[in-house]
């Protein structure tokens, strides 16, 4: 009994030590932003490997780990990917100029038409395009694909846009960014290239049963962190019912 008790004490002590680490995790959770401007400094294969080696512990539905990562180094492939990304990006900016939520699944036909009509204005709005037009020069570019047949899309039979399948992939993508942060590296998860998924597949020899889930740009940030703009807990949390009182302290 005595031994068990002391082992329990050890375990508790170990947990308390781990809480010290958790404080750093909390900082990371509250301050990991989207970084789109990078110093002209390479990320070694060793460092990138270590980032992926941490990220792979991400959760996924049924632990299927349906992700595949393409480390994109070839300059010609990078340039082509940037073109395909830019095309999606211009569509995104067109939505913004039209005052619409970009790519909302609930957009009406009229919304779609309005956004298309803004496309040439969007292409001319050069102040929006700095990152998109320099994507190919990011120190590291990762294309994350998802094996569609291995996704737990529990909502696949509902009469609405499906969302649950992506939940088996994006924690992994986010974990890449957190693991990068741990090493002083910043980055951004992007999805604009998915607008042109068939072309991206063809360029990178991605099989038809894989979706292009994200392109992640990584590099050492130029700027120091700024405070993140996020809604407070009570703005999105309610008690008991969706329309219940705000969960606040
Ligand atoms: C699913 C998802 C898709 C995103 N796609 C893009 C993208 O295509 N291009 C881009 O520049 N940023 C993209 N972002 C980054 C968001 O713009 C960014 O996370 C958000 O604006 C918050 O930025 P902050 O952390 O710097 O405040 C994406 C983020 C997520 C989570």
Question: What does this protein look like?
Answer:
The protein has seven helices and four strands; from the N terminus they run ααβαααβαβαβ. The chain has helices spanning 2-31, 45-55, 75-97, 109-117, 119-124, 170-181, 197-204, and strands at 67-71, 140-147, 186-190, 210-219. It has one domain: NADH Oxidase, CATH 3.40.109. The protein is α+β, with helices and mostly antiparallel strands. It starts with a helix and ends in a 30-residue tail after the last strand. Helices cover 40% and strands 11% of the residues. Flavin mononucleotide binds at residues 33-34, 36, 131, 188-192, 228-229. Flavin mononucleotide binds next to strand 3.
What hetero molecules are bound to the protein chains?
flavin mononucleotide
Provide the structure class. alpha+beta
Helix content: 25-40%
Oligomer: single chain
- What is the correct CATH architecture? 3-Layer(aba) Sandwich
CATH homologous superfamily classification:
NADH Oxidase
The CATH class turns out to be Alpha Beta
Parts with pLDDT < 50 across at least 5 consecutive residues: 1-21
Name the overall outline. globular
Instruction: Give the domain tally.
Output: 1
Number of helices: 7
Strand elements, count: 4
Q: State the major sheet.
A: 4 strands, antiparallel
Mean pLDDT: 91
Radius of gyration: 21 Å
Our estimate of the beta-strand percent is 5-15%
Distance between the termini: 42 Å
SSE succession? HHEHHHEHEHE
Q: What is the CATH topology descriptor?
A: NADH Oxidase
Strand arrangement, major sheet: 1-2-4-3
């Amino acid at each position: 009994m005595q031994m068990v008790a002391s082992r329990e004490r050890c375990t508790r002590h170990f947990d308390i030590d781990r809480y010290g680490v958790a404080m750093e995790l909390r900082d990371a959770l509250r301050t990991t932003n989207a970084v789109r401007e990078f110093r002209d400094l390479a990320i070694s294969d060793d460092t990138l490997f270590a980032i992926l080696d941490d990220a792979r512990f991400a959760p996924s539905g049924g632990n299927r780990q349906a992700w595949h990562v393409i480390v994109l180094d070839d300059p010609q492939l990078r340039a082509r990917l940037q073109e395909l990304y830019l095309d999606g990006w211009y569509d995104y900016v067109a939505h913004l100029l039209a005052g619409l939520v970009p790519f909302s699944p609930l957009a009406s036909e009229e919304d779609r038409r309005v956004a298309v009509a803004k496309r040439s204005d969007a292409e001319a709005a050069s102040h929006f395009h700095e990152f998109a037009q320099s994507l190919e020069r990011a120190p590291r570019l990762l294309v994350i694909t998802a094996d569609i047949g291995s996704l737990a899309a529990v909502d696949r039979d509902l009469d609405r846009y499906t969302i649950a399948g992506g939940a088996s992939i994006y924690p992994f993508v986010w974990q890449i960014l957190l693991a990068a942060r741990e090493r002083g590296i910043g980055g951004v998860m992007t999805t604009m290239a998915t607008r042109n998924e068939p072309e991206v597949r063809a360029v990178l020899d991605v099989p038809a049963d894989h979706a292009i889930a994200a392109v992640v740009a990584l590099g050492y940030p130029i700027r120091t962190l700024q405070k993140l703009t996020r809604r407070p807990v009570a703005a999105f949390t309610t008690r008991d019912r969706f329309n219940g009182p705000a969960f606040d302290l």
